[in-house]
Amino acid sequence: QLQLVESGGGLVQPGGSLRLSCAASGFALDYYAIHWFRQAPGKEREGVSCITSSGRSTNYADSVKGRFTISRDNAENTVYLQMNSLKPEDTAIYYCAAARSCLRLGQVYDYWGQGTQVTVSS
User: Fold this and answer.
1) Could you give the C-alpha distances from 102 to 4, 10, 62, 98, in angstroms and in order?
2) Is 110 within 8 Å of 52 (Cβ atoms)?
3) Which of 8, 56, 103, 119 has the fewest CB atoms within 10 Å, measured from its CB?
């Protein structure tokens, strides 16, 4: 079965850290750029970060710059999102998606994960 599977979410206190994983099953991830999105209740989906297939280029939403780091291990067929200095406003379901590039406008996503819940609360 061809799919992306996210893991690593959970409940963390403000200021804490989590590392999310996005693992590919049934296909090679190294052909794809990987996007991380998040969606909080009652809010629109927000692009968080992206990494190109080679890993040489990344981008981040202004709201997470300096706190989140995206990386990939193509040998492990996995992309990671290291999230530090977490804030309550980071609470959301986080999704990864595979695409041909890190462009968002008009992008077609070949695969989506099911999402992992991140809750930042004291």
Assistant:
1) 17, 27, 16, 9
2) no
3) 56
